[in-house]
Design goal:
Length: 432
């Protein structure tokens, strides 16, 4: 199924590239024939299995090291681990020279796993706590250095994962201040993801950034004096800024820009939706002035990136207005929740429905099927929320479920037909 969908999309793209003069007709036929070969769908399977095997071997070694080796001396343990580690790097070099890059990458991943096992072993020998951030940091640096020198995509993925574990351990040991040092490893990971132009790594980089905010949220609130609502507003404005930055700098890498745009859309809409479920309380009014300063700075940054996106990407004014409306909806929340908390859920529900419709229009205009589909998801989720918040309190239980079932079935059919029509129109517009 996935192979057929890929070939269909590839054929459409090749037709467009031929029309624009990027690919010759002969080359397009050769590309399509290569992608349609019987073994094309399974060509990467050995490499995937090799990487998975490397991960399992790494876990096996670390589990073995974690056990108490009563019958082996400390020096022998160290020699075994580090000899095996350097042996895997030699094997990786030999495999690379023989034209087996996927298996070489698997060997590199095993070597990094053995490096981590060596750190665990040293911690065990010298009675260092196993969740010491320093050991994880050394492992993370080794993974990122390996990713830079070889270069190695699996090593980069491991380095990003270890950076998140590092900040988790650091906060667990000292939650008085946010773990700011994480952003050094994050910046190095982002630079490597851009250098390798590898979308999965860029996914991991963005996820790691948002996870850091979640892990460090309490520490950030304690240090800065922000209220929880101000912190959420800052994250929303940051997500919108990420969205605009993706459009402004999409010329450097369209694929990575699309990834960043997707995360900006999802995080911004999700958090605005969460705001409407909390009518707020007096704590919003008691928030410190520092939050207002940072929110103002975030708004200025968002405005600058929006203007840059309009100049470089040609973003129309109506779509800039949609982004500005989302920002205004987030900024207005503390004031509305204090002055008229009962009105907030319903006013925000209406606004979210309008913004979901705008997002569908945005996606259709820009040829983004993700934006179109997510716009329908937001609209449907908001309708469901309104349904359960209103009809569930007004109708008898039996009537509630019967009427609800009918509305959901009819609504799902209508929504799916609308979504397919708009996605098809978007795809055809991309070919024109």
């Amino acid at each position: 199924m996935w192979q057929r969908a890929y070939l269909t999309r590839l054929k459409r793209d090749l037709d467009l590239w031929i029309e624009r003069g990027w690919v010759t007709a002969a080359n397009a036929e050769a590309i399509l024939a290569s992608a349609s070969e019987p073994g094309a769908a399974t060509r990467r399977m050995p490499a995937m299995l090799a990487i998975l095997g490397a991960v399992l071997i790494g876990f096996a070694v670390m589990s073995f090291v974690a056990a108490n080796w009563q019958d082996i001396s400390k020096l022998t343990k160290l020699i075994l681990i580090f000899a095996a580690m350097w042996g895997t790097y030699v094997a990786a070099f030999a495999l690379q020279k023989r034209g087996h890059p996927a298996f070489a990458q698997a060997a590199v991943l095993i070597g990094l796993g053995l490096f981590g096992a060596g750190i665990m072993l040293i911690a065990q020998i010298y009675h260092i706590v196993t969740d010491d951030p320093g050991g994880v940091l050394a492992w993370c640096v080794a993974a990122l250095a390996t990713a830079w020198l070889l270069p190695s995509r699996p090593a980069l993925a491991l380095g990003i994962l270890l950076a998140v574990i590092w900040t988790w351990f650091a906060i667990d040991m000292n939650d008085a201040t946010p773990h700011w040092a994480f952003w050094v490893a994050w910046a190095a990971s982002a630079a490597l993801a851009l250098r390798l132009s590898w979308p999965p790594a860029f996914h991991l980089v963005l996820i790691a950034g948002f996870l850091w905010q979640a892990i460090n949220a309490e520490a950030i609130l304690d240090v800065t004096g922000f209220s929880p609502t101000q912190f959420v507003i800052l994250v929303i404005l940051g997500a919108l800024a990420l969205w605009m930055a993706a459009l402004a700098f999409s010329g450097r890498s369209v694929r990575l820009a699309a990834v960043a745009e997707g995360y900006g859309i999802v995080v911004a809409f999700a958090l605005v939706g969460i705001l409407q479920t909390d009518p707020g309380s007096g704590e919003h009014a008691a928030a410190g002035a520092s939050g207002t300063v940072f929110i103002t700075a975030a708004v200025v940054l968002l405005a600058a990136l929006g203007g840059l996106a309009a100049m470089r990407d040609g973003l129309p004014a109506r779509h800039l207005a949609g982004v500005a409306a989302m920002a205004a909806l987030a900024i207005a929340y503390p004031f509305l929740s204090v002055t008229n908390a009962a009105l907030v859920p319903w006013a925000y529900a209406a606004a979210i429905l309008a913004l979901a419709a705008w997002l569908v229009s945005y996606g259709a205009a820009r040829g983004s099927r993700f934006a179109v589909n997510f716009g329908f998801v937001v609209f449907a989720a908001e309708v469901l929320w309104l349904y359960f918040e209103t009809l569930g309190t007004l109708l008898d239980t039996a009537i509630f479920f019967a009427l609800g079932g009918v509305l959901l079935i009819v609504g799902s059919v209508v929504f799916e037909r609308m979504r397919r029509r708009i996605v098809r129109t978007t795809a055809e517009g991309g070919e024109a």
